[in-house]
Every structure is written in C-alpha cells, then in structure tokens.
Design goal:
The chain contains 12 helices and 10 strands.
C-alpha cells in the first residue's frame, strides 16, 4: 500500500481501479470481533482515508463469514470497573463515528455477515450501506448489560425512525438484511453472492463521477447527523457508566457461555 495504511492491526487494504480502496476487517478466526488494537485502528483509519490522494471511494467489509461480531469479550471484560480502559474506549468510540462523518471520501459498507457493536457502527455510519439478505445484526449493547452507545443514538432514529430504533435497540433483537432494507436501516439488500459486485458497481459509479459534488453532498447531508451529537455523546457516557455497574460482567459471561443471563439489576 502506501505510508497511509502501514500500521492498522486487524485491517487489510486492497486498491482497485478508479481510486476504490477496499478495507477488510481481518480477524476471521474471531469472526472479526474488535479487540483493543482493531478498535483503535477503526477509530483512526478514516483520518488517512481523508488525506490519501489515491483514494476516492472506500468499501469496508469483513473477512470470511462475518462483518464483525462485536467487541472481543476478553477485551470488554478488562474494561469493567477500569476507568482508564473506559476512558480510552469512550474516546475511540466517539472518534470512530465523528471521523467517518467528517471523512470527505464516500464510504460504502458491504455487510457480508453478522455485525454487532463497533463493527455495526462502521457498517451503519457508512454513507451507503449494502447488506446481504441473509446477514443478521444487532446493536447488542443491552445484551451485554450496557446502554446502547457506539453509534446508535446518532444515526438509528434518522435511518428508521424513533419507534423502530427504540424497539430494536432496547430489545436487542436481531435484524436480517431484508428487514433492515424494508425499515430503512440500510441503503439496500442484495443476495449474498451479489454483495461485493454491487458494492463495486456503486463505488465505480461514484469514483468516476464528479468528486467535489459527491463530497459536498455528503457534507451537507451529514449536518443532519451532527445535530444528534449531544444525544450520541450522552449515550457514550451512559454506556461507560454501565461498565461500573453489576450487569456487564454477567452479560459478558453469559454471552461467552451461550446461556441466558441473570442480570443482578433484574433480580
């Protein structure tokens, strides 16, 4: 690649014609779950995408069967009652969202499989989101025992309306690609075997079109997103507050053990 993309653990990069850059979340042995290093990389890479003169459009996807299966539970458990760890996660989660918003290049997500947590933030903060019809995702924070942070408060109500956002975020029910398309959470759904071809088609159309016009349109439309910044910042704070509570440890353990959690606050 170039000096721009030499030091991003957990991410792989591939250049294509017309200035299309494909970024792959590349921890397939962990279903692309984000550990501390990958979470940091996802928060920083958009700065270099913004500055890279060779990149016009980005496609971000996941290696193997998943887009990203949320935060690595071993990493999440280290943050419980750890102020310094929470402070880093709080900073990076905010930077991931705001840097995608402020990145002038058009970002397309090709959601090839399960998406949860920080991976879902990347998927849904993309300017255009394409999902495989049989892919499934959930915000997942409530399952863990923490408030829905990362990205949901800033973008879900804009995408699918407040009623649907509340329902799916509070219940943590999984959503498949067809349903996500129907309720407006993603731009469109396609059969899984057509996903990358469709993402590349859209990327090529944008990359060979008027660059300034596309970028200024993104900038104007994202003013709607920026109006929700206070709600987003509050949601991050509430999420971190829950890492000081009793439910998150049980939530993480239950997910690991694949059983129904017994949250202390529900006892």
């Amino acid at each position: 690649m170039s000096e721009y993309f030499d030091a991003y653990p957990g991410l792989a990069f591939e250049r294509h014609d017309h200035g299309i850059l494909v970024i792959t979340i590349n921890r397939p042995e962990k279903l692309n779950a984000t550990d501390a290093a990958t979470h940091n990389a996802l928060s920083r890479v958009w700065l270099d995408v913004h500055e890279d003169p060779a990149t016009r459009v980005v496609i971000v996807t996941g290696a193997g069967e998943a887009f990203s299966a949320g935060g690595d539970l071993d990493w999440i458990e280290t943050m419980v009652n750890d102020y310094d760890g929470m402070r880093v996660a709080f900073k990076e989660a905010g930077e991931l969202v705001y840097r995608m918003v402020h990145c002038e290049k058009i970002i397309i997500s090709a959601i090839n499989g399960m998406a949860v947590g920080a991976g879902l933030a990347v998927a849904l903060m993309a300017d255009i989101s394409i999902i495989a019809e049989d892919a499934r995702f959930t915000d997942g924070h409530i399952r863990l025992g923490v408030a829905a942070g990362d990205h949901s408060a800033i973008i879900w109500p804009l995408l699918c309306g407040l009623a649907k956002a509340k329902y799916y975020l509070i219940t943590s029910e999984f959503i498949d690609g067809k349903t996500a398309d129907r309720i407006g959470l993603v731009s469109k759904s396609v059969p899984g075997d057509e996903l990358m071809d469709e993402a590349m088609r859209i990327a090529a159309k944008i990359a060979t079109g008027p660059q300034d016009a596309a970028r200024f349109t993104k900038r104007a439309l994202n003013l709607w997103v920026q109006q929700a910044a206070p709600a987003f910042d509050a949601s991050l704070g509430f999420e971190m507050l829950n890492f000081m509570g009793p439910d998150v440890r049980e939530g993480a353990l239950a997910i690991k053990e694949k059983r129904r959690p017994n949250y202390p606050s529900a006892g």
